[in-house]
Amino acid sequence: MKDPLTQRLYFLFGLLVAACILGSLLSPYFLQVSTLGYLLQYVPILGLLGLAQMLVMLSGGPGIDLSIGAIMSLVALAVAGLFGIGTPLLLACLIGVGLGGLLGAVNAMLVCVLKIPSLMATLATFFAYSGLALALTGGSPIGGIPNWFGQLAQGRFLGVPLHMWTVFVPIAVLLHVMLSQTRTGTHIYAAGNDERAAFLSGVRVWRLRFALYCFGGALAGVAAILTVSWFQAARPDAGKGMELLSVTVAVLGGTHIFGGIGRVMGTVLAVLIVTTLQVALQLANIAQAWQLAAIGMLLIGSVVADNAVNARLRAMARRVPA
């Protein structure tokens, strides 16, 4: 009998195929090569945010980061603003990733040190970061990004956007190795499964979670750099709605909302499913409200599937002899 988590991956792959079939039925343009390029251009941005959300949720708590889209917007503005005052663009990008980690550290301080529930803490920082992004720009984008930098997100290699090869795939592979092959990954799963048992076995749970909030913020900073490259401008609303999409991607991919269960591969498949569905509905000229409704239904279905997987795992654990 297959592992329920492996069955979940098969389920996600089938769902991806179904989304592709739906897209081809809704629009004759869906199966064009140009559509694939556009679809994959969006994947790394949502994918990085989904992976960041997955890591925060995996460590338990329960943990969630509702400010991740606002962090992306604020970092993008910082990168474009620093470049605008004469900072070399690559240095501005490095500073932006550091700023993302710092903003994540604010979340970590609220959740891990002050013990504020993550939902309330990150909702508060979501409003703070979003408000700051709008206040600094008056709602206007910051342009002036050079054409050569646009090649990172707009360039192609074998028909696939360059930032898929150079950013998203390497980060996803490294996270997979970290979670499956290293002590840090073992500690993350242990903290999510049983916080007290992990602590008694020597895992410094609060430090681990603190680091993951910081790392999640840094990943949002990388995603911000990709948006600046794609649009060749920084928009204060670039991360609008991305926090909920990142949660949808993480949960749909099999990450348990209370931690301890989840895989990088599941999150990657979930990103492809959500992106495929969005592009298919856009090509079919489906209204934005119905697109949001479809994503909401997908989230509900993912939670139901998540509960079914966890019930299966508990049943398997009861059958294992002591």
TrEMBL record:
GO cellular component term, pick one: plasma membrane
Record's keyword terms, sorted: Cell membrane, Membrane, Transmembrane, Transmembrane helix
Alphabetized GO MF terms: transmembrane transporter activity
InterPro entries in the cross-refs: ABC_transp_permease
Primary location recorded for the protein, binned into one broad class: membrane
CDD domains associated with the record: TM_PBP1_transp_AraH_like
Domain of life: Bacteria
Membrane protein topology class: Multi-pass membrane protein
Name used for this protein in its record: ABC transporter permease
Taxonomic source organism: Paracoccus gahaiensis
Organism lineage string: Bacteria, Pseudomonadati, Pseudomonadota, Alphaproteobacteria, Rhodobacterales
